[in-house]
Amino acid sequence: MIRMNDFGGEPEALLQAEVRAAERVIRSGWYVLGTQVEQFEKHWAGHCGAAHAVGVGNGLDAIEIGIRSLGLGEGDEVIPTPMTAFATILGILRAGATPVLADIEPQSALLDLRSAERSITARTKAILLVHLYGRMPGMAPWVALCRDRGLVLAEDCAQAHSARVGGKTAGTFGAWGAYSFYPTKNLGAIGDAGALVTDDPQIGASARILRNYGQENRYEHSRLGMNSRLDELQAALLEARLPWLDRFIERRRAIAARYHEGIRNHALRLLALPVEESAHVYHLFVIACEERDRLAQHLKERGIESLIHYPIPAHLQAPCSGLRRDPRGLAHSEKHARTCLSIPCQPQMSDADVGTVIEALNAFR
Ligand SMILES: *Cc1c(COP(=O)(O)O)cnc(C)c1O
Question: What pLDDT, in 10s, does the model give residues 119-137?
Fold first, then answer.
């Protein structure tokens, strides 16, 4: 089986580094918010070119904490895409703010600028860009739109570790970037983990308070926070995995390049190439096909796993049917959800595996 993820196939040297990291933490006798977390925060901030990184429990919490750290809540509108992991929308809702959904552009499946503009109201406070599948858009128009309309720009970077536009890393274009280190992400822990990166010392300080019960000084609670602390074990494991991130991404890019070159089938559509090579880290390689379910079955019969990201856009999820949206509707998101298919594109695939996937796709009728 050619799998979407293959942790068992990771290099022995990485496994050994993880075992050493875990042993170090267990023997240290210190398990929550300690030196491992501090180290990883420092290194992750450095990797992103951000002034601060705050380790939290997961990516969902990073988004909630990010929205709350902007002082947004009841009555404040935030514009995301409905074509995303549900956590993007849930993070806004849990912060008490109101998501207003704008449509995607079909070539990239990323938020459409004109649709976002149409969705702005007097209550709009922020645009939350999702770097879906690991791809960043050209950022200049978004920075300009937010500046011109007095909105905060924020980034959901859960799929886009190490993605860069114009040499600047995902999460550093606006007020903050939210990262998830869920195991399947390009940088994953061995359990749940997340981080918020920011250049703004006030947002950084607020995130540190919110992740720890709203505790400002020991046993003094200035806000109603949550328990969303990155633990020492996950921080140490992330630290062990970080040196592998960029070479794993290089492998993902090489596989994606072979897909772009080798897939020749009029029944399939590839998403457009990114604005520059560094803007896409291929967390997922997604194709579109009118007969998506039959294609998935065809691949399965040839030993190739595939997944759908995502079959149901946010506005068609039961608790979200009442959410406001672009007055012209979300037709591109709905079509994408009906036709998209993610095919294996992970660093442990062999060249032969990549060839097998290309042949199977080209043989689909
Ligand atoms: C995975 C993901 C999240 C949520 O991260 P968790 O760590 O699973 O909570 C949020 N947004 C996007 C786009 C994701 O892919």
Answer: 999 999 999 999 999 999 9
* CA nearest neighbour of 149 among 176, 116, 173: 116
Written as one letter, the residue type at 210 is L
Average pLDDT over residues 16-34: 97
What's the 59 CA to ligand 1 centre distance in angstroms? 5
Please provide the DSSP assignment of 296-349 as one string: HHHHHHTTB--B-S-SS-GGGSGGGTT--B-TT--HHHHHHHHHEEEE---TT-
To test the pocket of ligand 1, the residue of 56, 88, 161 to mutate (highest count of ligand atoms within 8 Å of its CB) is: 88
Question: How close is the Cα of 156 to the center of ligand 1, in Å?
Answer: 8
Query: Chain-centre distance of CA 342, in angstroms?
Result: 15
pTM greater than 0.85: yes
By the 8 A CB rule, do 307 and 85 touch? no
- Based on its alpha-carbon atoms, the radius of gyration of the chain, rounded to whole angstroms, reads 20
Q: Residue written as tokens 């998403």?
A: 271
Atom of ligand 1 at shortest range from CA of 194: 7
Find the 265 Cα to ligand 1 centroid distance in Å: 32
Give the tens place of pLDDT for each residue, 162-211: 999 999 999 999 999 999 999 999 999 999 999 999 999 999 999 999 99
Count CB-CB contacts under 10 A for residue 241: 21
Q: What is the pLDDT of residues 249-301, one digit of tens each?
A: 999 999 999 999 999 999 999 999 999 999 999 999 999 999 999 999 999 99
Contacting residues for 111 by C-beta, under 8 A, at least 6 apart: 79, 80, 81, 102, 103, 104, 105, 127, 129, 130, 137
Does residue 84's CB lie within 6 angstroms of at least one atom of ligand 1?
yes
* Bond prior to 310 in cis (omega within 30° of 0): yes
Position 65: which residue type?
I
Strands, DSSP E only, in the chain? 52-56, 77-79, 98-99, 124-130, 152-156, 164-165, 168-169, 176-180, 194-198, 215-217, 220-221, 268-270, 285-289, 340-343
Q: What is the token pair recorded at 79?
A: 């514009």
Residue with tokens 């291929």: 282
Centre of ligand 1 from the C-alpha of residue 171, in Å:
14
Rounded mean pLDDT, 15-42:
98
